[in-house]
Amino acid sequence: MEGIKDMAFCSEIVLQIKIARRANERLEVCKNNFDNIELWCSIQTILVASANISKILNPSEKKYIERGERLRNMLNVQSDFKILERKFRNSFFEHYDSRIDDWYEKNSNGKYIDLAINPSLNGRNLNTHRGYNSFNNTIEFRGDIFKIDTILKEMDIIYEKCNFFTLT
Length: 168
Hints:
By secondary structure, the chain is an alpha+beta fold. The protein is built from 6 helices and 4 strands. A 4-stranded mixed β-sheet has the order 1-2-3-4. The two termini are 18 Å apart.
């Protein structure tokens, strides 16, 4: 452990978890009181908070890799934690502009379904770009499904370990 420095990282992780939890509370309200903007705002906030945690625990820049390994070991974050993965987050919001370009480069059929609600109720639709399934709290990108509850549970595990090391 690197003392105050690691405590600062843990404090930031705890903050991001609290932000994601608040967004999930708003998402739950949206299920009963439908507000399309609030729904997607909440989903994006959860993904951004998880991305910020991932960047701390699993940095892509070589000079920070040691720090990520140290913090993952300190907090007992397993290598199979979904929160460490970047693929879904990058497809869903981070690099969505390039996903649109790629889609139209390869698909000239003109079908474009985005921000669908419960797209999985009728089976997989590979023309659905982004979708949210309220019945099981999952998000979908072109047929791939990501469980929001999984990263929220992982955040709970990380929070319990991390809260011990926070500055506040």
